[in-house]
Amino acid sequence: MSPFRRTALLASVLLLTQVGIADAHIVSARLGDFYAGALHPLLTLQDVVVWVALGLLAGSLGAASGRWLVVVFPLGLCTGLALAVGSALTLVSPLIDAATILVLGLLLAAALRIPVTLLSVIAFVLGVMRGAANAGELMPQTDRLLYAAGLAIAGYVTITLVMALALTFRRPETEPVSSWRGIAVRAAGGWVAAVGLMMAGLSLAS
Questions:
Q1: 162 with 52: CB under 8 angstroms?
Q2: What is the DSSP annotation of 76-102?
Q3: How many CB atoms neighbour CB 113 within 10 A?
Q4: With the C-alpha atoms ordered 33, 155, 137, 147, is the resulting torsion angle positive or negative?
Q5: Neighbouring C-alpha atoms within 13 Å toward the C-beta of 68
Q6: How far is CA 96 from CA 32, 130, 199, 203, in A?
Q7: What is the pLDDT along the chain (206 residues), one digit of tens a residue?
Q8: Can you tell me whether residue 183 is helix, strand or coil?
């Protein structure tokens, strides 16, 4: 064996003996808690339906009414999370989730002109409820600040995107409720209400 190959083999053996645990993933930097807070609600049916329905409702009422939700809803999520962590408070149950989805669907289907203040209160209360529900995923080693930041940003992005899409499609400033766009949004509200009824039936049956 040539001296070069002998040296290369020796160097390879030395490198292999120094192998340790690889810290190449973001979880080791505790950023995994941030992504857990952001992704968990987007993988839960109750959160997805409630967040999308709330964004549709805000978008169907116009930009002036809906823009407050961009701040109020994430604030409600963080408040609910903090309440649940601090007092082990449980604000949700399958039946309450179903009733919430049903009410949101009916509001969408009825095309009611909800005042800005009332809409903001509804968004904050829903945020508190869903924030408390997501606290159930916290583990003792979870960084609560990162988890809350991920949850709040997910709420902000979801509400903003859904509301923007609803505003673009619905055009509440120029299209009447009786237009086909308004009817389509109301039909979506009917489907949301149907999901709420189905969830209520399943909850009562179990």
A1: yes
A2: HHHHHHHHHHHH------HHHHHHHHH
A3: 12
A4: positive
A5: 14
A6: 30, 11, 10, 10
A7: 666 556 555 555 554 555 454 444 444 445 688 898 898 888 888 899 999 999 999 888 888 878 889 999 999 999 999 998 877 655 568 888 899 999 999 999 998 888 999 999 999 999 999 999 888 878 888 888 999 999 999 999 999 999 999 888 888 766 777 788 888 889 999 999 999 999 988 888 87
A8: helix
Structure tokens at 7: 């040296």
Q: Which residue has the tokens 């902000």?
A: 156
Q: How far apart are CA 92 and CA 76, in angstroms?
A: 14
User: Do 116 and 62 form a contact (C-beta atoms < 8 A)?
Assistant: no
Closest among 93, 91, 44 to 206, alpha carbons compared: 93
Q: Which helix (H) or strand (E) holds 11?
A: helix 3-17
Tell me the CA distances in angstroms from 57 to 48, 165, 199, one per residue in order: 14, 11, 20
CA 189/CA 166 separation, integer angstroms:
12
- The structure tokens listed for 93 are 């149950």
